[in-house]
Amino acid sequence: MKLEDIISKEAVNKGRQNELDIAKAFLIFSLAVVHTFCECSTPEALWKGMPYFFDSVIGGPWGAPVFMFCMGIGLAYSRHNNPSDLAKRGLKIGLMGIGLNICRYLIPSLVGYLFTGDKEFYIDRLPDRFFGNDILQFACLAMLLMALLTYLHLKPVHIWIVSFVLSIISNFITGRDFGNHVINIIMGHLIGTEDARYTVFSDFPLIIWFFMYTTGYMFALLLKRIKAKKLIYGLIIPILGIPVILIFRYQYYNGIGMMGGPRDNVFYHMRTYEMLLCIMAALVMFAVSYFIGLVLPDKIMQVITNISKNITEVYVVQWTIVWWFANVFLMIIRKSKYMESVPTLIAGIIISIISIIIADLWKKSKAVK
């Protein structure tokens, strides 16, 4: 087989790609379950069993990294990817992040405090939660940075090199404590910051995670030209999947790295080599999804495609419901947000289904306007 039989000079994979829709639909459905386990499991429970699986495995390398990778892919497939469009999209997502924090943190915290009087849990922690750096804040900054770099006429490969260099630099400066909580929160949007108690909400610093976004962008530029997708994906599963699984197992059993347990900053402030592992894991997920897509009926694929289109809306809805459920409803009714694994799983699945339905109605209402 010749190289031209594998990779075309022109784009051959235009429009939506089934493997990406399947991967995103899985991610969307699992988000609520992951976040319900995060909120409703004790810190000790997150170290093993079902809570660990959803928090550190599905919510780890096959969670946020795939979300960001797909965000980069979407950029390559979008017709609105000039600097102006990117800046507008970034600001729109930033405003959505503020709206989410109002619905997810501000309002329920005030309601929870009103009913329970627990100032420490609801009010004292509110500033950290509200101004912390979550994935929508990262998406905003990533798109603004991408807008700047494209405005400077940098080629995609040069942008990728910039992101890689930033990731390398982050290895030496992450985990900084500026000695001031407000400065830690502000700088946490750019670099990984944390205080002595590891309480700073610096979840997705730009300097660390921009590399995932640009790699998704570069992968999509290549994906457009791949003619032999079955061959490429068939090679990805063993070549990348086996070492990824072995390394993750090694980290788990030795209690090191991002798979060594629910130590949030280890994952959010990961090193470059672990970011590369997450990229490999994302590619394996796409490869498996590709072969699943070959046997799925068209009607099921249509449902999956429709779900994958609403990924941002589902994220906003499910996080809002999860936080109200765990930190307001359960706290008021039961005086505790913690539950056993099976009830947590059931609650997560129900919230996921409700979120997908609400997000679809939300998207359709915006389309009507």
Rg from Cα: 20 Å
Helical amount? over 70%
Q: List segments where confidence is low: pLDDT < 50 over at least 5 consecutive residues.
A: none
- Count of individual helical segments: 17
> Major β-sheet, in short?
none
State the shape: globular
Order of helices and strands: HHHHHHHHHHHHHHHHH
DSSP E strands, number = 0
Summed over residues and divided by their number, the pLDDT gives a mean of: 93
| Coarse structural class | mainly alpha
As a percent range, the share of strand residues is under 5%
Straight-line N-to-C gap: 51 Å
Q: Can you describe what's shown?
A:
By secondary structure, the chain is mainly α. The protein is 74% helix and 0% strand. It is built from 17 helices and no strands. The protein starts with a helix and ends with a helix. The mean pLDDT is 93. It has helices at 3-6, 18-40, 49-58, 64-77, 83-116, 119-124, 126-131, 135-151, 156-173, 181-187, 206-223, 229-254, 264-268, 272-293, 298-308, 311-334, 341-368.
